[in-house]
Amino acid sequence: MRPKLDPAVAETRRAVRPALEGHTTVLIAFSGGADSLALAAAVAFEAEKAGIRAIAVTVDHGLQPGSVAVAAEAAETARRLGLEAHIVAVEVGDEGGPEAAARAARYEALRDAAYDYTASAVLLGHTLDDQAETVLLGLARGSGAASLAGMAPIVDEDEIAWTRPLLGVRRATTEAACAAQSLTPWHDPHNEDPQYARVRTRTRVLPVLEAELGPGVAEALARTAEQLREDAEAFAEMIDETIEDIVEPAEAGIAVSVAALAANPAALRNRIIRHVVASEFHVSLSRTQTLEVARLVTDWRGQGPIDLPGCRAHREGPRIVFTSATVSGS
Questions:
Q1: Do residues 245 and 315 touch, judged by C-beta distance below 8 A?
Q2: DSSP H or E run through 116
Q3: If pLDDT is split at 50, 70 and 90, which confidence band does 233 have?
Q4: Fold of the CATH domain 7-216
Q5: b/e per residue, 153-180, with b = 16+ CB within 10 A?
Q6: Whole-prediction pTM
Q7: CA 174, 147, 120, 95 torsion: positive or negative?
Q8: Spatial strand order in the sheet of 53-60
Q9: CB within 8 A of 307, min separation 6: which ones?
Q10: Which end is more exposed in the chain, N or C (fewer Cβ atoms within 10 Å of the end residue's Cβ)?
Q11: pLDDT per position as a tens digit, 236-267
Q12: What Cα–Cα distance (Å) separates residue 285 from each residue in 60, 121, 151, 270?
C-alpha cells in the first residue's frame, strides 16, 4: 500500500502542475525560504515527470553578513531536490528605497538568467498571504485599483512568463509542505524586521484583522484583488480599442480629443489620461494630478497649463495637449 501523500504537499504540487504546461525549461526564483522551498520541491517532482528542465536561481543581494554562505546553502538544497542550481550576485542601488532597489536588482538578474538558459518561464513563490499584504498596503497608500489588483498569476514580458503558481496557497501550507518533506527553510531576518511596512502588515495588521473580523480576511483580500484585476483588464482592452482614434501627435508630445474624453465615463476617461502620460512620458500620475487634467475636459474655464511629472498638459481648442516638461520649460 502506497503511503498517503501529505495534503500540503499535494496542494503545492497541484498548484505547480498547470504552471509547467507548455514549457521545456523553467527557472525558479529560489531564496531557500519556506515559500520558495515548497515551490522548488513541487517543481522538482512535477518537472521530472513531465521531462521539463528546472533550474533554481538564487540571487545574492549582498545586503546581510554571510549572504554568500546563505546563497551557497540554498543552491545545495536545490541540488538535493534534484534541480540544477545557480547563484547570481547583484549590486543593489538605493533608488526607491531598499526594498524596491533589491526587487529591481533581483528581477533583472532573473530575467538575464532566463535568457541565458533559454527558459520561457520564471516561477515565483508568492502566496495568498503575500497577495493579501499587497492589497492592504495598496489600500493604505490610496494607490487605486491598479495597486489593489495585487499581483497577477502570470505576466508575459519579453517572451518570459513570470508565473506565481502558489498565489492561491496559504503560507501555512508551504510551511507544512516543507515540514512534511523534512525540508528546513531558511528564515530571512528581513522578514522579521518591523522597519518594513510589509513585515508590520504581516505580523501585526493581518493578525488583528483576523482576530477582530474573524478568519478568512486574507482570502477575502485575495478575492478582491482578483475581481479588480478582471476590471483592470477590461478597462485596458477598452483603451486599446479606442486609443488610436482619439490621440494624435503634437509638437514635442501628444494630443487627445476633448470630445472623445468627455464622451467617456469618468473611470475610463481618467484611465485614458494616465495611459497616455505613462506611454508617452514613462511617468505615473497620482489621482489628484489625473483629476486636474480631467478638469480641462469637464470644467474648462480658461485655466492655464498643468505641470505634471515629466510633462505639462494644457487645453488647445478641441484637444488636450501633453508636452515634454523639458520643452515646456525651455
A1: no
A2: helix 98-116
A3: confident
A4: Rossmann fold (3.40.50)
A5: beeeeeebbbbbbbbbbbbebbbbbbbb
A6: 0.82
A7: negative
A8: 84-89, 53-60, 25-29, 121-123, 160-163, 154-157
A9: 325, 328
A10: N
A11: 888 888 888 899 988 889 999 999 999 999 98
A12: 34, 31, 20, 10
Q: What is the pLDDT of residue 93?
A: 76
36-47 average pLDDT score: 98
Percentage of the residues of the chain whose pLDDT score is greater than 90 = 68
Give Dmax over CA atoms of the chain in angstroms. 82
The C-alpha atoms of residue 70 and residue 232 are separated, in whole angstroms, by 39
Return residue ranges of the chain for CATH 3.30.465.60: 251-329
Spatial separation of the C-alpha atoms in residues 33 and 31, rounded to whole Å: 5
In this predicted structure, the answer to whether residue 1 has a pLDDT above a threshold of 70 is no
Q: What is the mean pLDDT of residues 170-183?
A: 97
Q: Where in the chain do CATH 3.40.50.620 domains reside? A: 7-216
DSSP-derived letter for residue 294 is H
Q: Which fold has domain 251-329?
A: 3.30.465
Q: List the single range of 46-55, 108-117, 191-200 with lowest mean pLDDT.
A: 191-200
Say whether pLDDT at 163 is over 90: yes
pLDDT digits (tens, 9 = 90+) for 84-101: 999 998 888 777 677 778
Q: Which grid cell sits at 286?
A: 497620482
Cα 98 off chain centre by: 17
Compute the distance between CA of residue 186 and CA of residue 66 in angstroms, rounded to an integer.
Answer: 13
SS3 221: helix
The beta strand positions in 53-169, using DSSP E, are 53-60, 84-89, 121-123, 154-157, 160-163
Output the known binding site.
Answer: 31-36
pLDDT of residue 330: 46
- Cell 480658461: give the residue: 302
DSSP string of 155-216? EEETTEEEE-TTTTS-HHHHHHHHHHTT------GGGG-TTSHHHHIIIIIHHHHHHHH-TT
Q: Is 53 helix (H, G, I), strand (E, B) or coil?
A: strand
| Closest by Cα among 61, 91, 55, 90 to 75 | 55
